[in-house]
Amino acid sequence: MRWIDLSAVVVTCASGLGCWEPNPAFQSNVIRCDVARKECRQEGVGSDGSVQCTSFSSAVQFSATACKDADDGRTNDSLCTQMFCAQPSGVAYGYPSGCSAAGTDVTAQVPADGICRVSSSSDNGRLALVSFTQRWRDCTPAAGGPYCSALNVNSAAQSGCYDLSVTRAVTQLLPPSDRRDRSVLISSATLNDPECPLTGSFTTAYAITPGVVASVSAGGMTVPVSAKSGFATVTQACGDGACTTTLDKLLVNLGDAMVNGVQVTNLAVSTAGPIGASGIPDPDSGLVSVPSGAVSLVATALVNGARSAFILRNKQPWRVGVTASGMTLQGSETLTASNLSGRQVPVTVSVSATGKPASAQVQACASLSPRARLFGFEDPASWSASSAMLSLATSPIKQGCGGLAVTGHGYMLMSSSTFSTAGLSPAAALSLDLFVPASQPNPFWIGAVQMFLTCPSANVFNQYLGQVELTGKPEGQYSTLRFPLPAASLSTLRQSLNDCSFGLALNVNQTNASWILDNLRFTP
Amino acid sequence: MGPRTPAVGLVAAALAGLASSCGAGGASAELVGQSPHFRLFVGSLPAVTVDAEDELARLETNWADTWTMLHMPEGQVDYVLLRPDQIAAACGIPEAAGCEIGRTVYASAPVDQHELNHAYMELRTSHRPHPLLVEGVAEAVGCGEGAEPPPAFDQVPDWRGLIAGARAADLYAPGRQLARYLILAYGADRFLAYYQQAPRTDDADAFSSNFARFWAVDLDAVWAAMQIAQPAWGPDEVLPVCPCSLPPWTASTRPAVLPATPSHPYWTWPPAAGDTAVLAGYQGSFAIHDCARRDLPEFSSVTMMFARLAGSYYASTGSAVAIASGSYLSDVCADAVADELPARAVLANSSGSPISIAVQRPAGTAVSTYLALTTPAPLALGRYDGEGEVVVCPDCATPDAACQPVPDYPASVPVTGAFYLHWTDGSASASRDWPYTFVSLWVSAGR
User: Fold this and answer.
1) Domain B6-226 has what CATH class?
2) Is B369 near chain A, with CB under 8 Å?
C-alpha cells in the first residue's frame, strides 16, 4: 500500500486529454416552489377538432418540491417557472398568462440525498421516513371523446417509510402518471430513520397470545402473570450467509397480580431497546440464543397504588424463535425487590411468551412510530397521572389498536412522555376523541377537558392550549374535542424540538366507568 | 511543450489543491487494490470505508457492461474514491461532485457512471469532439439517471447556441438527448464512428455540415425528431440507455432474495415463457425499466409487482427484494397459481401502499387476466392507477357480475383469505398502441 503520488497524476493528466470536465454537484439543492397559476378544470373540443380547455380555475396557490444543480445557471424562480408554468408534456394547451412561481432553497431543511438523488445511505441502514403532500387533478373522461369533462383538484398528505436507494423521492412520490397537474411537496425526510424498518430485512409484527406468559416466584410463592394484549415486532436480516433476529419492540399489557401481599396493577412490559439474537437455531425448538445482557425490559406498574418502574436485564442467555406461524420468547431471571416490610427478597421471573402473526390492524399499529403511538393513545405507559388510574382500552376505540382509559374523578391531570416535533405538520387545531361514559350523575355539568403544551428547550412550560366543555356531549359515545392552537403554540410546534409533551386535564364527576381518550391529531 | 490549454491549467490547479491538502488533513488517497481495468485509491484522513474487493468487482462489472456499447480497448483507469467534501479540492472546482482527469476518476459514488464514461472514451480515442458530444455520451450510457437531473424531452435549447458557446453544465441535458437519440436510432457503433470524426469547433455551421455529411440528415431535423422520439406511454424524462448485458435472474415459485451486488447492480429480465415475475419489497425497493428507457414509465414506488413481460427489461433493486416466477397471472382463472400478499411489506406504511400488475400484449388487443391471492390478514383494495377494471371474486366459478368491483382509491373493497382478481383492459384502451398495460391497486389494512 502507498499514498497516491500526486505528481504522478500530474504526469498522467498532462499526457492525457480532456482534463477539464467537472461533474457539477448533482442536484445538490432542494427547492420549494410556491406557485400561483390558473388550471384547467374542464376540457372540450374546438371547432378544429383539437382538445382545448373550456374553463380555467381562478388562480390557485400551492407549493411543490423541485431539484436544482449547484451549477445550474437558472435562478430558483426561473427553475420553478419552467417546471410549473411551462406547457405540460402531453397536454394540448398551456397555462394561461399570469402563472408565477417563486423558488426558495430549502436544502437546509430537506436533504438532497434521497430527495433529489438516490440515497447514498449504507446497505445496513434503515428506510427513510418521508413526509409529503401530493397534489393533482383527476380527469373525468368525457363521453364524447378523448378529453376530460371535469378536472377536479385533489391532494393527499402522507408520511411513511420509503426506500430511496433505487429511485429518488421527487420521482417516486409524484402522484400516478395518469393524473394532471401533479406535484409533490416534500416537507421532511430523514434517511436511516430509527422508526423505519432495516433495509435488507423484513419486520414482522406478532400479536402476543393472551394467557399466562410468565410466573413470578418470591418467598416460596409462585404467581402466574397473564397477558391481556400486546405485540412484538421482529426483524430478520440476512447477509453474508448469516442471519440475525432482532426483537425490535415488545409491548405487553399484563393482568393485575398479588405478589407476596403486594397489589400490582396496570402492569406493562416493554423493551428498553432492540434485543438481538444470532447463531444457529436449536434443531429441535428452532430457538436462537440471546446473549447475557442483551435483554433489557422495562416494567411499569402501580405497586400498592404507587407508580413504579423496574428494569430487567438478563444475566443468563434467553431464547427467541421466529417462524412463519409465530414467535417465542423464553427466559428466566432472578432479581431483588423490596417486600412490604422493606426487606430485600429474591424474585424469580420466568417468561414464556408466544405470539401469532398479527392482524392487519395490529401490523399497522405496530408499524406506527413512537410519536404516532403517543398521539394515538396506544400505550398507557406513554401517559402518567397522579390522581387517575390509566389503562389500555381496546373497545370502543376510534383509531389504531387502543385508547387510554381514565378512571377517577375530579381534576385529573395527565402528562405525556416527550416527543420530537421533527416532521410534524401542525395545523390550526389539535383534536382528540373522548368517550363520555353513560349514566352521568349531573346532566347540567358533565365536565371539561384542558390541554397544555410543554417544550423546555423552547422555554415553553404548561402553555395553556384551551378548554372544551363536555356538558351537552352525548353519553355512551365518542365526541371530538377541538382545541384551536394559539399562535405561540403553533409557532413552537413548528420548530424542531425534541422535548415536547402534552398535558391533559380531565375534570369530571364521579362515575364507576372509564373515560377513553383516543386519536389526538392536528386538524384544520 | 505545446501551449497549456485552460483545461490543463485547471487540472494543475486541481492537483495543486490536492497536493497542498495532503499534509493538512484534506484529500489524500491510498492505493487499496487493483484489477485488470482499475486501480482503486481510497481517500483517507478521515478514511473512506470501503471493501476494496467489492468495489473493484463493481467497477469491473461496470467495465464489462459498458464495454458492450463503447467497446473500449484494454487499459486501466484510476478510480479515486473520496468523501463528498473532499471532491471539490481534488477536482479543483467548487461544488464539484466528481471529475475525470486523464483517466483518473475522482468520485464519491462507488460507481460514477458519468466520469467512468469519460475515462472509457479517453481509452477509446484521443480525439475530442465538441463538448456537446463529450458530455452527451457520458450522460447517455448507463442504467441509472445520469449525473444530471433527467431533462424533459421538449425543453431543449437551439443547438446553434450550444455549439457556439455554452457552459459545460448546460450541455449535459441536450448532449444526453442527442447522443441517446443517435445511439437508439443508428446503434452505438455508428455513434462512436461519428464521435471519432466530429470536429471540435464552436462554429455552428461547421458542426452542422459535418453532422449532415456523416448522417445524411440535417441536424435541425434530428434536433426536432429527438424531442418527440418518446412514445406517449414511455418515461417523461430523457434517461440514459442501459447496456443490459448482465445475466438475468433465475427464479421459481419459491421466493428468493434478489439483491443488488457488486456483480449485479441490476438484473436483466429472463425469457419468461409466459410466466409472471413477482417482485416484492418495501415501497421503492425496486424499479423496473426497459433497456432503451423508452417504453416503461417508472415502475418504482410499489411494494409488489406482478409482471408478465418479455423483452429487454431490467430491475434495479434496493433493500429486501424477493422474486418469484410462475403462472401467477393467467388468462384462465383455474390456472392462476396462488400467491400471498405480504402484509408485513404492504403495511410497512400505516396508510398502506400500492401493488402493480403489468402484462405485455400485442398493441391494441384487450387483456383479461386472473390473479389468485391469499392474505391471512384482512386487507382493503382500491384501484389506484393504470388501465381497465378489476373485480374481486371468491372463486373461479363466480361470474364477474357477481364479483365485487374494486373502486377507485380511497374507496376500497375488503379482502381476506383466498380470492381472485380479474383484470380486464378492453375497449377503453385497446386502440392504444401500447406494448404493455398495467393497473395498480392501493392495499391498506382492513377491518
Assistant:
1) mainly alpha
2) no
